[in-house]
Every structure is written in structure tokens, then in C-alpha cells.
Amino acid sequence: MSSSKPSCASPDTSPRLPSWLKVSLPRGRAFADTAGVVAGQDLHTVCRQARCPNIFECFSSGVATFLILGGVCTRGCGFCNITAGAPAAPDPGEPERVAQAAARLNLRHVVVTSVTRDDLPDGGAALFAATIRAVRQALPQAGVEVLIPDFQGDQHALETVLDAAPDVLNHNLETVPQLYPTVRAGADYSRSLELLARARALNPDARTKSGLMLGLGETRDELLDTLADLLEAGCEMLTLGQYLQPSPAHMPVVRYVPPAEFDELGRLARRMGFAQVASGPFVRSSYHARDMAEASP
Are 175 and 189 in contact (CB under 8 A)? Predict the structure, then answer.
């Protein structure tokens, strides 16, 4: 695809965060209350582990994204702040504690993700399924969204998760295929696309979702080709957000994408055929996930 727009890989010359990436610190007790519920159940959240910039807003609104299968990942992606190493054995009590925390927070839409567990035969699929079922029992009216790893292409693991009937199945491509060797070591672009296509084929009732980080060095044409690939795989819901470097040890930001460009890309994605799109500097996979899910047909 061709475009007269500038490349997304244009270097950012400012050493400081642009003004649109400033966040406000929490006020009031709601932030501490949410953090207390999570800590009281001895749970992890991607909000803290991944240093999400939206944690102040989300925790202050009584919302958290649960991170299951422990807090240590078997992969060490250059963009991710989650600790990489040798994880402990899965905790069979974790699904029930997630459900209890979700019930205490009175969530209408529960988002569950995980570290990647390549050390487990099923990649942790059984614990995902158990968590979905536990949340359903505790909050029968709530929507359940899972953001899953690629399970190394294991279709049986994917079927295990889908059999538990999540409302939304999310698997992030994260970036364009040209950047996978540096951004997503251990992952495979085609394998991730195939997972989304299989999920759509195996359970058409589960809406499929994926997300991309921008500002890692992708060009506009590479981005548009990736969006076309997602549509071909049957992906209905899309998130586009700005990559932010969690620490100096992580991959640097190549470019800060202006809000107006995010808006334009969101409109373009909708015209291309995505049913729901969230596009903006602070957008993440689970950011306002309930609004996106409830807006879908």
C-alpha cells in the first residue's frame, strides 16, 4: 500500500515526553481501595507489572486487569517490563482469587491476561479456562475478556480456552512482522495470525481482538499491511497505542505519534472494516475494554 503520509519511523528528536503523554496522579481513596483488593487476594495485575500509564485512571475507577500464571514470563521481549526467567508452578487457587477480587470490585467486564508460560505443556490454557469459569460463577452478568499468549501454536490449548466461552478473545500482534526479530523474540507473526483465524473459525461467538504498539520503527505501509492481515484473519476489534519505554534497559522509542495521527489511523481502520477501534497514545489492550466490548454487535 502506498501513502503520501510521512513514515511512522521518522525519528523523534525531543529527549522529553511530549505534552500529550503527561498523566495525572491519583486523588482520593479509590486508587488505594483497588490496589488493596488486588493485594488482599495476592494477585498480579498487568497494570503494575507492565508499568501501564493508565494505572492511575483505571485503579481510581475501580478497574484492574488481572495477570495470571504468576509474575514471571518465560520470554524476554525487548518492550515488556514483566520479569523474564524461570516461573514457579501455577497456583491452582489463582482462578478463585481472581473471581473474588472481580466480585469485590463489582466489575461488569473482567479482563484476564497472563505471562507467557512456554514451560507448561498447555501454555497455561487450563488455568485460563478455570479462571473464566470461576469469574462466570462469581459474576454471572459480567463480560469476560482474555488476552492470551500464542501457546506456541497449540490448537488444543486454544480450544481449551474457547471451550470456557470467553466473550472476547484477544491476542496482540504487538508490531509489524518486519520488527518481530527485535521486538518479539520467541514469537512468530504467522503463528499469531493463525491463532486469531483459528479462534474465529472454532468459535464465531467469541469476538476476536488484537493490538499494536506504534513508535517502534514501523512504517505506515507496514502498519497498513498488518491491519489488512488482521482483517483477513477475521479480527473484529483493534487497539492502537503508543509504545513507551518502561526503563532505559528496554527498547527505545523511535517516534512519538501525535494524537491527531492516532485519530486518523482509527478512522482509516474503521473504513478498512474493523467493527471496533480504539486508537490513541494511551490506548492499551484492556483500556476501556468494557466500552469496546459493549459497543460490539
Answer: no
Burial of 79 (0-12, 13-18, 19+ CB in 10 A): buried
Beta strands in 47-164 (DSSP E): 65-68, 72-73, 83-84, 109-114, 143-147
Farthest CA pair distance, the chain: 54
pLDDT for 5 beyond 60: no
What span, in angstroms and rounded, lies between the C-alpha atoms of 101 and 42? 10
Strand-pair partners of 22: none
* Rounded mean pLDDT, 90-119: 94
Phi, psi dihedrals of residue 279, rounded to the nearest 5°: -135, 120
| Angstrom distance (rounded) from CA 7 to CA 3 | 9
What mean pLDDT is reported for the chain? 87
| Strand segments (E) across the chain | 44-45, 65-68, 72-73, 83-84, 109-114, 143-147, 168-170, 207-214, 237-242, 276-279
Q: What residues contact 16, with CB distance under 8 A and at least 6 apart? A: none
Q: Which residue is associated with the grid cell 473471581?
A: 99
The CA–CA distances, whole Å, from 243 to 25, 71, 216, 278, 290 equal 20, 21, 7, 15, 22
- CA 251, 227, 199, 237 dihedral sign is positive
Please give the CATH superfamily to which domain 23-295 belongs.
Aldolase class I (3.20.20.70)
Look at residue 267 and give its three-state secondary structure: helix
Instruction: Give the predicted TM-score (pTM) of the model.
Output: 0.88
Q: Which residue has the higher pLDDT, 34 or 192?
A: 192
